[in-house]
Amino acid sequence: xxxxxxxLNSMGxxxxxxxxFLTSFAAxxxxxxxxxxxxxxxxEKLPKINIQKTTAAEYEQYKPGKALVKLKLKETKSSxxxxxxxxxxxxxxxDPRTSGDGFRGFEYFGYFPKxxxxxxxxxxxxxxxxxxxxxxxxxxxxxRYSIVxxxxxxxxxxxxxVNSKYLLYFYNEVYNANNCTIxxxxxxxxxVPSKLLTEYQYFKTDKWTVDQIQWIDDQSFLIKALVxxxxxxxxxxxxxxxxxxxx
Length: 247
Fold this sequence. Notes:
By secondary structure, the chain is mostly beta strands. The protein folds into two domains: 1-37 and 69-156, no CATH class; 49-65 and 168-247, no CATH class. It is built from three helices and 15 strands. It has helices at residues 5-28, 40-43, 56-59, and strands at 34-37, 50-53, 79-84, 87-92, 102-112, 117-126, 129-138, 144-147, 159-160, 166-172, 180-187, 197-205, 209-215, 220-231, 234-245. Strands 1-8-7-6-5 form a five-stranded mixed sheet, with no helix packed on it. The chain has a four-stranded antiparallel sheet with strand order 2-15-14-13, with no helix packed on it. The longest helix has 24 residues, at 5-28.
């Protein structure tokens, strides 16, 4: 069987790309730079966020900032490239159509310019159930901060405070109406990458879920909450508004 030199060159390039991808992914996946944060048992030992009711008028005085930008990344049909610590890493794209259990790939959501962090989710399937975790990748140190999921799905994309001193994220429970958790991570000194992000405060409720959140400054934020009620076999929904202050 004869194979043309053009096809050989094409196969060679394909094999080289695959080798580079596997090498890049293996380097990116090294455990020594991975930090897991957001464990509920840690939050439970910390002060609770002080949350009080407010008005829609106060909420509407503030507009959410655009902390997350969508950098244009190099990509192929099956992978995309991020650059951390001056080195390129090719990561497998998440494909929901992939069958079978195991790792399904990464999904890219954006980049925090002030924090120098990529926002990704890592996705996997086990026994036909999907799981995901949100990951913040520091482009300066190549440290990866995995925010432990509260349920099957990843937590919502964190929202930095006005001067990026804190990161706020939340998780609305899928199977329990009006159940949610709001959590705060503190942004510390970059000189110790393993401690750059630490659990600071949290709040859990079974009265409402989060529709939107926006910071006022580095110590307070506003919540637009969704309340769901079942009355006479009919489900009704309305909004409530809350103001939160950190200790």
